[in-house]
Amino acid sequence: MSLLSVRQVSKTYELRLGWSGKTQRISALQDVSLDIAAGSCLGVVGESGAGKSTLGRMVLGLEKPDCGEIWFQGQELGRIPSQALRAVRREIQVVFQDSFSAVNPRWKVRQIIGEPICNYLNKTAGEAAEQTIQLLETVGLTAADANKYPHQFSGGQLQRVTIARAIALRPKLVVLDEPVSSLDMTIQAQILDLLLDLKQQYQLSYLFITHDLAAVAYLADRFAVMHKGAIVESADSLDLSKLQHPYSQQLIAAQLPAHPRDRKSLIHSAKPR
Ligand code: ADP
């Protein structure tokens, strides 16, 4: 049984166009189905506007699908009574791209990480403080960082804080919504390595949303290519050369090669059929 099963989920937004009263319908998700096995990472890759974050919000329960179902650990999220939903929600956490917007700027790190531990795990303030320090060390920070405010960290360090908060409640699934996209290249690699380590250490499953094929190849076990709200291709193998769909090949062409001499062949090989 899959840990997460998204079944034929669709979502349409209606946008009001100025004062005319006219509306435009945007089909953000069309009949999307995917599965994530326990302990595995599914990369969902696609360009901006493909519907990736909308999918993430549905899985997190921040929005409801117009139709379709989302199953988590054998339960359909839409049918779980609200009292029970709180416990299920604890099992699905998120790391967003913009770590500065994801935290309260007036809170110290010990509150940012300690508050959910007190609230959800019913720990005392002392126990939460102890766990916070352990979590900070797990993500490569130090006990001294617990007394700092978000503005006292670099982007990469603050992303480590939000990762520590995400794993604090021992979730089963973490939605990673472009977690390294705003970081520079060396820091990206360090954060991807950290996510890989944590996946093994805590048997986590990831829904990894990104526009970056290289990051998908690095972190994901399986991947799905999303285009205009639909999944156009998915595969078990991370061999990108096996991608067949013309849009997938365009995505490959859009990635910068490691060396300029590779540029021509890459563009040539990515010609739509
Ligand atoms: P991605 O994460 O792949 O960049 P999104 O899921 O953010 O894509 O968006 C998919 C489409 O849905 C886009 O056309 C976007 O403008 C639209 N969209 C997303 N959220 C909303 C919303 N709350 N209201 C209206 N349109 C939205």
Structure description:
- The structure is a single chain.
- The protein has helices at 52-60, 82-90, 109-121, 125-138, 155-168, 185-201, 213-219, 246-254, 263-269; strands at 4-17, 22-36, 41-45, 67-72, 75-76, 92-95, 173-177, 205-210, 222-227, 230-235.
- The chain has 273 residues and is α/β, with parallel strands linked by helices.
- Strands 6-7-8-3-9-10 form a 6-stranded mixed β-sheet, sandwiched between helices. Strands 2-1-4-5 form a 4-stranded antiparallel β-sheet.
- A hairpin with a 4-residue loop joins strand 1 (4-17) and strand 2.
- Helix 3 (109-121) packs across helix 4 and helix 3 (109-121) runs parallel beside helix 5.
- The longest helix has 17 residues, at 185-201.
- The chain is globular, with a radius of gyration of 20 Å.
- 34% of the residues are buried.
- Residues 266-273 have low confidence and may be disordered.
- Bound molecules: adenosine-5'-diphosphate.
- Adenosine-5'-diphosphate binds at residues 13, 15, 26, 28, 46, 48-54.
Strand content: 25-35%
**Which consecutive residue ranges, at least 5 long each, have pLDDT under 50?**
266-273
Mean pLDDT over all positions: 90
- The total beta strand count reads 10
Present the secondary structure layout.
Elements: E1 4-17, E2 22-36, E3 41-45, H1 52-60, E4 67-72, E5 75-76, H2 82-90, E6 92-95, H3 109-121, H4 125-138, H5 155-168, E7 173-177, H6 185-201, E8 205-210, H7 213-219, E9 222-227, E10 230-235, H8 246-254, H9 263-269
Parallel strand pairs: 3-8, 3-9, 6-7, 7-8
Antiparallel strand pairs: 1-2, 1-4, 4-5, 9-10
Helix pairs in contact: 3-4, 3-5, 4-5, 5-6, 8-9
The structure holds adenosine-5'-diphosphate (ADP).
